[in-house]
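User: What would this chain look like folded?
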Amino acid sequence: MTDEWKSPSKASADSGDDKSWKLLEKTLLAGVQEQRRSRRWGIFFKLLTFTYLLGVLAMLSPLVDLEKSATRGAHYTALIEVRGVIADKESSSADNLVSSLRAAFEDSKVKGVVLRINSPGGSPVQSGYVYDEIRRLRALHPDTKLYAVISDLGASGAYYIASAADQIYADKASLVGSIGVTAAGYGFVGTMEKLGVERRTYTSGEHKSFLDPFQPQKADETQFWQGVLDTTHRQFIASVKQGRGDRLKDKEHPELFSGLIWSGEQAMQLGLVDGLGSASSVARDVIGEKELVDFTVEESPFDRFSKKLGASVAEHLAMWMGFQGPTLR
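Assistant: Here's the prediction, encoded as structure tokens.
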């Protein structure tokens, strides 16, 4: 039997090594703790700075509005922008446009309203809401005229809205019209057959899945859907005729309601617009008040700043707190 034997000097050396390792371990742990403590304070001060900046922006936002109000003249022309797709939750939603219109018509200093349009159209429901509200406000405020001014594009639902105005103006090269309704989709029945894939759909209601692109079309369902589009088209045409009246040359040009689109110069000859001009020229020469005051409902600088930062705040907080996940670069 042999037992491992250590000399006193060897044992002393091992004990010294253990103490050195423990000391090194304590030093490393202290360093890690200090880094964590510094990181926490760093996060605190960064959040404090961020909160301070948001507070400053929130306070400055109303001051900017007050400054704009202070520079306005005794009378001015209200400007409302219709930009992009007309749809719920978009900048040109019915809610936003109706709020802008009401604010403009109820302002006693507004001499006239210019609705500046650059839109391909969108929802017939949203456009119909705005159309109806324009006609209601015009009836309530007969002395305040509303002029639609089409810049690059005033098509489909955008022209629907424009037709409610007292007059419509456009540039000679603007695109105007597209009085029609469309609904598009795809059919994948042949592709499914080639792939050997069987479509299984379970519904309650004979026609519940009639728009399913993976099932063959049925003649009666296609006819039904066409009827829905035709009804919507008739409603569109009726509104345009109500708004434009005898100015439309639809008897001489029945293609007006075919979905075609024309230049501003052609549209004037067809009665789709009343003249050529821009928002500033209409304000100056037609309304007689060249100062344009923007009544378009928009997000405040505070809201815009918050939204832009919102997408990255969580990521930055995670990085500061040491929770950054794996990334590929």
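The chain has nine helices and eight strands. If you want, I can go into more detail on any region.
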